[in-house]
Specification:
Layout: E1 2-11, H1 17-28, E2 32-36, E3 42-48, H2 51-63, E4 69-78, E5 86-89
Parallel strand pairs: 2-5
Antiparallel strand pairs: 1-3, 1-4, 2-3
C-alpha cells in the first residue's frame, strides 16, 4: 500500500469538487481525505495499491465535478499514512 498526495489546480473550490472526490474515493473503496487549501487549490491524500488504481484516480481528478475546471493535478508519493476511511476535511 502506498500513500499519495495530490494538489489539484484550477477552479476547484465552491464547485462541489470535494464532494465529487469523496464519491469517487468511496465508490472505489479508497481511504484518505480531501480538503480545500488556502491558495484556492484542493489537496487529496489517498492510499492506493496498484499503478492502475493511481492512473484511474488521476483521470477522475482531472475529470472533476460538473462546474469545476481542473487545470493540473500534481501527484507525489509520500510516507505511508494509515487511514480508516475517506473524509472531507476543513
Amino acid at each position: 500500500m502506498n500513500s499519495y498526495k495530490f494538489t489539484i489546480f484550477g477552479r476547484v473550490q465552491g464547485v462541489w469538487y470535494r464532494k465529487y472526490v469523496m464519491q469517487i474515493a468511496k465508490t472505489l473503496g479508497f481511504v484518505g481525505y480531501v480538503k480545500n487549501i488556502s491558495n484556492g487549490n484542493v489537496e487529496v491524500v489517498v492510499n492506493l495499491d496498484l499503478q492502475s488504481e493511481l492512473e484511474a484516480f488521476v483521470s477522475k481528478l482531472y475529470e472533476g465535478s460538473t462546474f469545476s475546471n481542473v487545470k493540473d493535478v500534481e501527484c507525489i508519493k509520500i510516507d505511508f499514512v494509515d487511514f480508516e476511511k475517506f473524509e472531507k476535511r476543513v
